[in-house]
Amino acid sequence: MDTSPLLRAPAEVRMMIYDYLFNDGGNKQLRIQNATPSKLQKSDGRIRSKYYVLERSFHRRCYTTTYQLGTEGVSFCASFMRVNKKIYEETAYLVYGGHTFDFGSHIEAVEPFLSDLTPPSRQLIREISLYKRGPEPPYDYDRSEWRNVCRFLQDHASIKKLRLMVQGGRPNTTWEGPKEFTVDDLKLLFDIKHESLDWVGELIRVKGIEELEVLPDVQYCPPPSSTNMIIFAALSASIEKGLTEFLRTQLRLPQ
To answer: What predicted TM-score, i.e. pTM, was given to this entire model?
Structure first.
């Protein structure tokens, strides 16, 4: 069978065509999120995994969803990638190798999104962003979802950079007890397996991370009324310094 005229064209010309068909609108970071039940998109021809998520509301209902692109101004001709193997390889590098992927708090979408890619395409993704929810009420803890995503990344991905936003709480009044933790304090909590740092134990299972960026998302919260809330308040105040250094130490990254 003769090679198609497109594949006979110079690589520079093909890349110009691909840039037109896969216009990211200048967004080098793409947001992947869960689709709400009322906005499940019709398939664009690509088979997307379905999965269950727990509604983050008072009702806490479980519903079936899939993932979707949440970044505005992006126009990707996904069906073009299925023309043949050569075109898929070239456009996959453009899409997956040329962007970072932000899952935010929709961490349930990580495994199905990456699982639906071919192994070579999955290996092209080098940077992702995740949001780590707080462990105490009124925050919506994500213990099982976090465990699942870390163990999947451990076995099936080759992430080199992780951008991690950590949710914290700042009481609106002073409180008795520690106000901020040092690296040594956090190591002690981790060594005694305090539940506030369970998620760190899951994170350090992910091998191969070479760069870590930690950002705080600190919101106001009620005055601590329990030991766990006191620890959470002090941990929240430590995100930018003590926690970041502690995570780098556990992942064996340079300080």
So the answer is: 0.91
